[in-house]
Amino acid sequence: MGYADALVAATSIDMEHMVELYGADPDKIEIIPPGVDLDVFRPMPRETALAHLQRDPCERMILFVGRMDPIKGLDTLIRAMGLVVSRDPSLRENACLCVVGGDASEDLRRADAELGRLNDLAESLGLGHLVRFIGSLGQDDLRFYYNAAEVVVVPSRYESFGMVALEAMACGTPVIASDVGGLSTLIRDGRTGFLVPDGDPEALAAKLQPLLALPEIHDTLGEHGIATAEAYGWPAIAERVEALYGQVWREWHMRALGSVTVAGSGAT
Predict the structure, then answer these.
(1) What does R_g of the chain's alpha carbons equal in angstroms?
(2) pTM score above 0.85
């Protein structure tokens, strides 16, 4: 970071970490978030999305997308699901928690251990039939799950940015996320989704219940999410990256010109 002419931070929180933990020069840091492919992640009729799912869909889908790792906080979501179902028993008949995750690059033994722990937790809460582990999916399949879901939950204990939340917003699906890391800057609480303390099943359940019960809340949050995601489309993000490269090149070129000296009849 000391050597680089420019640094890119995904969020203002990333920028603070660069400065505080690595001593980076804040004047060299440009905040440019990751982009989302709006041609892939876009709204579609829920019926269309449901028709493309590989498994039998449930009527009320709560969606989690992420790797099988304790930092992703899926245990918090399973506990919150237990609270919601205990308060509205009808959800036992028409709701499910779909878990999309697992990556070939991660430590399989660790993933298996975490999957076993989560399965045991779901069974202990009487949710075994409501929690469905889908496995890893590519973007072309994942977009249908986003559109089929009533809500996407990102209960992570930390996220540097929160790409899952952005992809869900681009599809018009409301998001409930932990108030941590990049999620704190990406989600506008009460407008594009809800922020809750991480590791707090009660707080998560308190936001999940009304979102499932009141369709008008779902629709309003979804519309605002779509509008927000438009600013993160790849063309706009690419322009900002290109502008930064241009700025670095111009500054380097000016420094090079400033070092030119003239000696005798030859220039150096």
Answers:
(1) 22
(2) yes
What whole-number distance in Å separates Cα of residue 222 and Cα of residue 228? 10
**pLDDT digit string, tens, across residues 94-143:** 889 999 986 544 554 556 788 889 999 999 999 988 999 888 889 999 99
Residues 6+ apart with CB under 8 A from 214: none
**Cα distance between residue 205 and residue 121, in whole Å:** 17
**Residue 209 structure tokens:** 């219940």
How do the residues of the chain divide into helix, strand and coil, expressed in percent and rounded to 5?
Answer: 50, 15, 35
The answer to whether 229 and 169 have CB atoms below 8 angstroms apart is: yes
Q: Are 159 and 180 in contact (CB under 8 A)?
A: yes
Helical segments of the chain, H only: 12-22, 46-52, 74-87, 91-94, 108-124, 139-148, 163-170, 183-186, 201-213, 215-229, 234-258
Total residue count of the chain as it appears in this document: 268
Q: Which two tokens mark 74?
A: 């899926």
